Amino acid sequence: MQTIFGRILSGEIPCNKVFEDDVVLAFHDVAPVAPVHILVIPKREVPSLAHVEQTDAEMLGHLLHRAAEIGKEHAPNGFRVVVNTGGDGGQTVEHLHLHVLGGRPLAWPPG
Ligand code: 5GP
Description:
The chain is of the alpha+beta class. It contains two helices and five strands, in the order H-E-E-E-H-E-E.
C-alpha cells in the first residue's frame, strides 16, 4: 500500500516543496517540531534505513548531501539530521526520510 509520502510524490497530496531533482524531494514537515523542519525523501520507495542495501550507497549519499545543503541554507547556526527507523526509532511513515531540524538549540540526548 502506498504511503503518505508516495502520495506526495505522485502529486496526489500537495507539499510545501523546498527542493527536487531526479533522486530526491524535500518539503516542509506538516507538523514541525522546530522552526526549521524539512523532510528529505528518495523518490524511490524504500521503507526505512533498515531496508537499504550496499547498492543504495549512491542514493544515500545524495540524500545526505542534500540534507546538508538544506541545513546550511535554512539553519545556518547548525542543524540536526535524524532518520527515525522502525517502531522504537519513532518511525511513523514507512518511506525512508531524513528530518532536517534547526532554528533553535536542540537538546541531546533525545527523549
Ligand atoms: P517519522 O515519524 O516517520 O520519522 O516522520 C514522519 C514525518 O512526516 C512526521 O514528522 C510528520 O509530521 C510528517 N508528515 C506526516 N504526514 C505528512 C504530510 O501529509 N505532509 C507533510 N509535509 N509531512 C507529513
